[in-house]
Design brief:
alpha+beta; OB fold (Dihydrolipoamide Acetyltransferase, E2P); Hypothetical protein af1432; 2 domains; five-stranded mixed beta barrel; 9 strands; about 40% helix
Length: about 325
């Protein structure tokens, strides 16, 4: 694995033989009715579409929807993307060396990011909110997972340290946005940002590849976040700094509503200015990450060479469109 080429370094019509992460493996059907396998293949550098035309139902049933596979195949440019045409494929159990080569990680310093998040919570002026932040920071087991958890399985910040990076990005955005609105409670927004996705530390597992944990399947990050918040509030009360009930209710509401609408998993529609702020900041950071990583950098950017077939990506369903890759100021007239 140490000598393998990363996907981002592969050129057109290059032969491939090795272990890759596979995501969203599906069985499709050609216009002539023949089955084919479609998926995303990935290593730590990026993801790229994979297709196997000589597939069968029996072969498909032997493959994981999300997991790890050995493939033999060849790269092929198609509509602006570098896809991999698979000739042979089988499910594999990755070695630790495989995992190090396949699982993407944040490009930023985890210790520095965590210290900045911690300083933000410790700098709060509202004593109960500051005590609440300290209760979380003192939970070593939870904070260890917070430093390593991905923010999602595939959509945005889907890499080791992604949740911490996403949270810090949102705190930066909140620090810019909140002063523009005089009557918005900045500290409620900051704590809400910290709490909104923290349940993903239990929802997701990443030790042997990204997957949903049993807790994620049975409880989910929103409910787990609410449960943890109540536990930490009880802890603060026991230590002599109770969180006022109206403050606790609004923080619960931020967690329950941060997905914005029931269509996207929100249990309540944002109904306070602070909840609206957290939901919008979350949406902004997630979508900007998806858009930029699909076009100009990161694990989903694909090859940018115009000779691959054009300026547009394949349709990105989470953004409801194909993305235009170039920065137009860099293009020749």
């Amino acid at each position: 694995m140490s000598n393998r080429k990363l996907i981002r370094d592969l050129g057109p019509n290059e032969l491939i033989d090795g272990v890759f992460a596979i995501y969203n493996c599906q069985l499709g059907q050609t216009k002539t009715g023949k089955p084919f396998i479609k998926c995303m293949l990935a290593d730590r550098s990026m993801r790229t579409p994979g297709r196997m035309w000589n597939a069968t139902q029996e072969l498909f049933q032997q493959l994981p929807t999300d997991g790890f596979v050995w493939i033999d195949g060849q790269t092929q440019p198609y509509q602006g993307e570098m896809q991999i045409i698979i000739q042979q494929i089988r499910s594999v159990e990755p070695t630790q060396e495989d995992l190090e080569a396949l699982l993407p990680s944040t490009e930023y310093d985890v210790d520095e990011m965590f210290e900045e998040v911690s300083a933000c919570l410790r700098g709060l002026q509202h004593a109960p909110l500051r005590a609440l932040g300290e209760a979380y920071l003192a939970d070593d087991a939870l904070m260890t997972r917070f430093r390593r958890a991905p923010a999602a399985m595939s959509l945005h910040h889907a890499y080791i340290g992604g949740l911490l990076e996403h949270t810090l990005n949102m705190l930066h955005l909140a620090q810019v946005i909140c002063p523009l609105y005089e009557h918005l409670n900045r500290e409620l927004v900051l704590v809400g940002v910290f709490l909104h996705d923290l349940g993903k530390c239990a929802e997701l597992a990443w030790e042997t590849g990204f997957r949903y944990s049993d807790d994620g399947q049975l409880v989910g990050h929103i409910a787990r976040g609410v449960i943890w918040l109540q536990q930490k509030a009880d802890q603060c009360a026991g230590q002599g700094t109770p969180v006022p009930e109206p403050v606790l209710q609004v923080l619960h509401h931020i967690i329950l509503s941060h997905h914005g609408t029931p269509e996207f998993g929100a249990l309540k529609i944002p109904a306070t200015p602070e909840a609206i702020a957290v939901s919008m900041i979350d949406n902004l950071d997630a979508k900007m990450h998806m858009a930029l990583s699909a076009t100009r950098w990161g694990p989903d950017a694909g090859a940018k060479d115009e000779t691959l077939g054009g300026h547009f990506t394949e349709k990105i369903w989470a953004l409801s469109t194909r993305m235009y890759r170039p920065d137009p100021t860099t293009l020749k007239a």
